[in-house]
Structures
1.
Amino acid sequence: MIAFIIRRLLQSVIVMIAVAAVSFALFRFVGDPIYSMLGQEASISDREELRDRLGLNDPIVVQFARFLGNAAQGDFGISYRLQMPVAELILQRLPATMELALVSATLAFVTGLGLGVYTALRRRGILSNIIMTASLIGVSLPTFLIGVLLIWVFAVELRWLPSNGRGAVVQIGNWWTTGFLTTSGRLALILPAITLGLYQMTLIMRLVRAELLEVLRTDYIKFARARGLSARAVNFGHALKNTLVPVITITGLQLGSIIAFAIITETVFNWPGVGALFINSVRFVDVPVMSAYLMMIALIFVVINLIVDLLYYAVDPRLRVDRAARSH
Amino acid sequence: MTGAMTDPLLSVRDLVVEFPTRRGTLRALDRVSFDIMPGEVLGMVGESGAGKSITGASIIGLIEPPGRIAGGEIRLKGERIDNLRPEAMRKVRGRRIGMVFQDPLTSLNPLYTVAQQLIETIRTHMDVSEAEARKRAVALLDRVGIPAAARRIDDYPHHFSGGMRQRVVIALALCAEPELVIADEPTTALDVSVQSQIIEVLKDICAERGAAVMLITHDMGVIAETADRVAVLYAGRMAEIGPVREVITDALHPYTAGLMGSIPTLTQESDRLVQIPGAMPRLHAIPPGCAFNPRCEKAFAPCRETRPELMDRGNGREVACWLYDTVATGGMRNA
Ligand SMILES: Nc1ncnc2c1ncn2[C@@H]1O[C@H](COP(=O)(O)OP(=O)(O)O)[C@@H](O)[C@H]1O
Ligand code: SF4
Ligand SMILES: [Mg+2]
């Protein structure tokens, strides 16, 4: 178990270094940082001095090592556009994105699982067919279109829900602002969370359904039925647990995509999160922000992957033995 | 022993099972009838696709939709079980009729320990405490031949070999003390070296508990050693049924005779049962008259027109073949 965790941690570090290399290349070679910082009017000697001060004349390996060291301490430099430390900028906006992603992911997972189980167990039911057809539409509509449709119906026509921003937020500690504690904050979350989570929900639902149908055909389910276990024990105790392994994997990866896809939703709903920050930084070629965002997303994926692997391990006893056997 | 005096434990009468398909309705079982006496071992043989598994599935009420029982009746101790409501039938499964499937590697849920699966099954059917259920489970595992049962019971299925897993499966099928155990090719998926041990364990433990067994198998050798009576199924119909010794030494049905002719080669290769030329017809192409007539050397006129019904030949023997119908054979002689 320990060996397994250490191995996975090492793999994660390697992945992060690879992403850092890409980030660094972006930082170092896209546009000229000196140019971006000093503007066009600066003299050549000013430029050289800054170049020296920033260490841009050092060997590339030394520069990369420094970049890594700084990144590991959360230092991604100064935003060209906003003249603030990038880390601070991201931290400011991270709570908005995280809360949105959390609500979306929970929504996607809970309803996806519920509907997936329902449509698998009531395979021939009318409602199941309606849900399956609707889910096809959900999968094929682009996110921004869903967002715009929701805004049109619930914000513009019905005027039930806000479509712009986070509502009122409450400061918690130094770094966190939350929308969960105010009514306007909670209402503001609804439409963006649905928009962001809908695709993932339909994906999870279809996956759960397919996996569950597959498991329901297995011999051990037939045998469980032949032993007279109740339908509930068979469907939920025996079958559902066996669908969890693949579902955990995909769901974990989906959570990563939810954060990555937040870019579109945040833009549509004018949501003050990191996705919107990233879009603006692209527009202004604000390279430090772009490279920091890239590394943040990579870190999130790596951490989620790690958690997924550990969950696997908790659910499936066969993995535990294989590892133990191999380590002997 | 007491023979005809006792009432049958299980009685299947004119059982018809159909599968609606796009190309019409398939009859997987066509008026199958047989009895199983309390405590006896009934062997059931037939080529792959003859309907053996479907027979087992109908008895335990687990035919997969859209398949359905379209006729006949199944009685357990005189009470009909083919039309029970789902919840009532669930209480029959495991508790009164146990089932052992073919492949022990896939029969056990990989995510639960053997103890969890046994205890769950016992407590589903019997009002006992967790500790009591565990005690019974350990005793049963010990009885089916799992070494160090008290310790091994907390292992997961993948810790056991194929033969050991089939012992666990047998323990699971028997843990709620059913009166009848249906074993559907319980050794086909196993290594040849452990097959006879598994059959022996199954037979002995059922004998101890007075449970009857319906033993489905390809292996005539196993039937000869294990069964009290044997039923021969062909294309979803009963060809012959009778005491195992008589059927083996003096088969009445030409198909059975062909099967028995192939016993010696069976000890090695138990998969190909039949040396009779030709193949069993597919369900949508069963010929009129006797289903066996295109392959039968002894076929004569009535065989191609009318299906022969099971006829009582005395001494507990029954056969479905026109050769034993005095009117039909008389007609042939006259012709
Ligand atoms: N789900 C199904 N749909 C259609 N036909 C089926 C289905 N299951 C079984 N059958 C048919 O029923 C017949 C008997 O099958 P089975 O009882 O499994 O044979 P076996 O004697 O080999 O156990 C076969 O011809 C098979 O094609
Ligand atoms: S009924 Fe006719 S075809 Fe069928 S087994 Fe008897 S003799 Fe052969
Ligand atoms: Mg079969």
Note: Residues B 19, 26, 28, 46, 48-54, 64, 67, 283 surround adenosine-5'-diphosphate (ligand 1) (CB under 6 Å).
2.
Amino acid sequence: MKNEWPLWEIFIRGQHGMSHRHVGSLHAPDAEMAIKNARDVYTRRNEGVSIWVVEANHIAASSPGDKGPLYEPSESKVYRHPTFFDIPEEVGAM
Amino acid sequence: MYAQMVKSEATNDDPEKLAAFQERIDRGEKIEPKDWMPEGYRKTLIRQIGQHAHSEIVGQLPEGNWITRAPTLERKAILLAKVQDEAGHGLYLYCAAETMGVSRDELTEMLLDGRMKYSSIFNYPTLNWADIGAVGWLVDGAAIMNQVPLQRTSFGPYSRAMIRICKEESFHQRQGYDAIRKMAEGTPEQKKMAQDAVNRLWFPSLMMFGPSDKDSTHSEQSMKWKIKINTNDELRQKFVDQTVPQIEFLGLDLPDPGIKWNEERGHYDYTDPDWSEFFDVIKGNGPCNVDRLAARNKAWDDGAWVRDGLLAHAQKKAARKHAAE
Ligand SMILES: [Fe+2]
Ligand SMILES: [Fe+2]
């Protein structure tokens, strides 16, 4: 039982024109089998037009503890949102 | 319910962290795998999700039993698709459990050597085709009762697995009801088979929700943590209320003479299942416990050379590619 197949994270493009989205994970011996298994596990009802598989241990992730330093700086930059600016009605849609 | 009598684990954590954690849950935030969580939350969820996953996998056996003997090619294709979905449900749930730091093989080993349980319902046999209809309708129907609220559970991966599962379940229940309806509306012999299936599976289905709340000691903490949303009795009552009119529509007799509409409560009264039978089945003495575990062990052992062979092949291919670079 030590020979466990590696874990793969599965990303599916649901429709043409959309981004791939993470849908879950599965075990497979290699990328080719991971795609085949993903087809069976995650697209049994037309949920996808394209599949990406990434071995889970190749994914680097931010840690929950970094939330503050990573995202707080953007909170003070309200001018990045269009609603920050008042545009007179006479100017029309902008 | 596919996870019955999940013992909630005591927690020995820093009270301040515990309080902050509880606040997150009360605010309706989802807990993600890398977030801090109490040890008891982690352990209880591994047990609960693992047991749920095992139930999906073992649950394929009673239905798989009839795939080759389905009455028509269409019924066979439908049942095959349904059973394949259950394999998928097992996989979604194993993955959710694995995010908490337990490996797939550990979970499998614990099922195979009996340390982890699966739902008591799958230790009952499917004797004929009417049972297949009754299982889809009643067993998946009972599972849905439990799974719909669990979509709102506090643990992100579990909640997402539940959402995916719920999308697929209503097909399961409908195909079952459709199959048994054909029999209930068929020849007198067929109708008798449908009645017999409902009679036999009724109480085991009620047992799926677990013992009565007054005897279920582990609910309180789990409900606080939102890994259990409703009490066992609430869900059981809901299931009875929903199912009785469905039985009547089929023109079948109610499987329990104690079923009566209670005007005052606004619910059907019903007879409690025989809990001594339930505990006996949980202990391993149901009609099919031995068969089910033997089948899972055999599948695991017989598949060992495939798992090893594919992994060896993948490693060789990777080494060759590496050498060529
Ligand atoms: Fe399922
Ligand atoms: Fe199902």
Note: Chain A has a mean pLDDT of 92.
